[in-house]
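Quiz preparation item.
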């Protein structure tokens, strides 16, 4: 028994179109259907996102402003540490020539063991250490916060009208600002001093000792 069938030659440049059910030469392929307006709207933003990811430089993120006055230790390695001002890092002096202690060690609930010290509104505040300004910010209670650091101490001061900037290198006795009552300050009756220039002027002074990894009583350092 014999069967009759035909062999059809298929060239490499021919393509089979399942939709049309026939063979087409490569140069005779049917044109693709045009994109709908909806597809165009979807594709344009997608292409812009892809091209933007390829060609646009990455934006540098900025470090967030600290929301508390709690001191912290540096997490950078020695090669990234600030270049501290030459001088004895153990040396420590008072921030005022003449002063009154208005409150003894306090602030343990938020990581401090600070004193409040006053010399009168507008009195010069001096750097108590040889070091560099590593932070200067306003915390969530609107307290201007200045941090001076060296290999031994991290000194934090609040409430003043500070006049230095991050990166400034300081020697003991260099003026860093003047006394004020900025931020969260109260009078002896516990009333907020906001808007009253004669009320609550002082400097909140905290000292962190890196060698022991703890806050220390500033009174032990400034006593004659």
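Solution:
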């Amino acid at each position: 028994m014999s069967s009759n069938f035909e062999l059809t030659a298929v060239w490499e440049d021919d393509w089979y179109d399942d939709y049309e059910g026939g063979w087409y030469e490569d140069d005779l392929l049917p044109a693709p259907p045009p994109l709908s307006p909806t597809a165009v709207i979807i594709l344009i933003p997608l292409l812009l996102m892809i091209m933007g990811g390829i060609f646009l430089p990455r934006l540098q993120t900025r470090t967030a402003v600290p929301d508390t006055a709690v001191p912290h230790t540096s997490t950078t390695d020695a090669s990234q540490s600030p270049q501290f001002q030459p001088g004895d890092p153990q040396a420590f002096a008072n921030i005022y020539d003449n002063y009154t202690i208005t409150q003894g060690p306090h602030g343990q609930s938020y990581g401090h063991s600070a004193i409040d010290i006053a010399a009168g509104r507008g009195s010069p505040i001096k750097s108590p250490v040889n070091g560099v300004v590593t932070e200067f910010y306003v915390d969530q209670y609107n307290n201007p916060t200045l941090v001076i650091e060296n290999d031994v101490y991290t000194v934090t001061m609040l409430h003043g009208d500070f006049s230095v900037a991050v990166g400034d290198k300081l020697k003991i006795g260099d003026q860093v600002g003047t006394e004020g009552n900025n931020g969260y300050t109260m009078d002896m009756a516990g009333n907020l001093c906001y808007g009253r220039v004669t009320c609550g002027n002082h400097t909140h002074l905290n000292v962190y000792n890196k060698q022991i990894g703890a806050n220390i009583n500033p009174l032990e350092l400034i006593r004659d």
